[in-house]
Predict the 3D structure of the following.
Amino acid sequence: MIDVVEFLRGGLRLNPSLLAADFANLGSDIKLLELAGASILHLDIMDGHFVPNISFGVPVVEAVRRVTELPLDVHLMLSNPADYLQVFRRAGADLLSIHIEAVSDPRPLFDQIRKLGALPGLVLNPPTPVEAIESFANDCDLILAMGVMPGFGGQKFDPNTIDKLKRIKSIGKKDLLLSVDGGIGDGTIADCAAAGANLFVAGTALFKGDLKTRFKQLSELLKQ
Ligand code: DX5
Ligand code: ZN
């Protein structure tokens, strides 16, 4: 797994968000993503409390784990993430990301995630300033800047995220995985890459057409 993360650090990667997949055919969508060249998968866990929506939980992560060896990037949109780290790790999460808005000090959770054998990530919402994560930026492996308020796919990207990515890039460690999630598509992905992001979570923009074609088109935009 750690090798895979080293690999992810080496380039700009599209990170498909399964929230936009066909849940009735999740296994075949994942196979199509693998064939298209995906090197990681993003899974959104929502509790209906931290965010005003409910997505899927542990059994779905387990099911995804059974059909792929790709690293699973699990985004916890939960009010009490500490209570669920172990179950999601056991279910197959390789990266576990928690929201700064949900915890006062993320460091004990990072320690717990590392002890479980996964890599910790920290997420911040559009209204949350970079200062809120600054003192923890070097204690985690991934920082995820939300381009939309979390809870739903298909929302419009907040352009302030670009400056935020630049700031995070400037304070983060050299090998930080800098991820962006929400509203990533043809019109926004290249600007996020120029701002320093290296992982691009995409749901709606990727699944809205033929998966292989859309994966290729969005990946091409990362090469320019
Ligand atoms: C939003 C989720 C995202 C979502 C992105 O709360 O964290 O991962 O799937 O969806 P799009 O790409 O449609 O904005
Ligand atoms: Zn997400």
Q: What stands out?
A: The chain has a mean pLDDT of 96. Residues 17, 42, 44, 75, 181, 201 surround zinc ion (ligand 2) (CB under 6 Å).
